[in-house]
Write a structure and sequence with these properties.
The protein has 187 residues and is mainly beta. The protein is 4% helix and 41% strand. The strands form 2 sheets. Strands 1, 2, 3, 4, 7, 8, 9, 10 and 11 form a 9-stranded antiparallel beta sheet that branches. A hairpin with a 2-residue loop joins strand 7 and strand 8.
Length: 187
């Protein structure tokens, strides 16, 4: 039976700033880590066909990554929901700030997603997913009740790469051999 190199089912480890100095595991998480890619299509119409399109034109692709972070440290939250001016950490206090009019692409970093088995990342880069330009943004609702666990939903906007040789690319499913190894994920 054929099988995707990334596997069919597994939890994963998420590495933020994969090739940078600030490399960090984003997690643990609780729930589904979700990578969505949606093509926008504009219909071409002719009066004689009514509402039925006679053709379609690709109008861009939107890619987003959702990570439901659970039991996060303040350092992890500062690096995600407080990233580059979105907040600040002082001692044991994370202050979240309003954001308006700030560009995201200039501060976007790589993310690598690797499947894990028994808390060990798959060592084969061909099983990893690489996203070139990602910037976090916030969309979470904290709850207090007797049975629910608090989750900080961290979302990443994934931008098409604008660098030479990668122009318009979002990333890859699978990476080449010799990629930087992913170390254990247990803290």
């Amino acid at each position: 039976m054929p099988k995707l190199p990334i596997g069919d089912i597994s939890p994963c480890v998420i590495i933020w700033d994969y090739e940078g100095a600030g490399q960090m595991h984003i997690g643990p998480y609780l729930g589904t880590v979700s990578l969505r890619m949606t093509d926008s299509v504009s219909d071409v119409q002719e009066e004689g066909y009514g509402d039925a399109p006679v053709d379609g034109v690709f109008a861009g692709t939107v890619v987003e990554l959702d990570i439901p972070m659970a039991r996060s440290t303040l350092n992890q939250l500062e690096a995600t929901i407080g990233y580059v001016g979105m907040g600040s950490l002082s001692g044991k206090v994370l202050t979240l700030k309003n954001m308006a009019g700030c560009d995201m692409y200039a501060n976007a970093k790589q993310i690598v997603i690797a499947p894990i088995c028994n808390n060990v990342p798959n060592p084969l880069p061909e099983t990893w997913t690489l996203l070139y330009k990602c910037h976090p943004y916030r969309e979470f609702e904290l709850t207090w009740d007797r049975a629910g666990q608090r989750i900080h939903m961290v979302k990443f906007k994934v931008f098409p790469n604008q660098e030479s040789g990668y122009c318009g690319e979002y990333g890859t499913e699978g990476m080449v051999s010799g990629s930087t190894a992913i170390e254990g994920i247990c803290a």
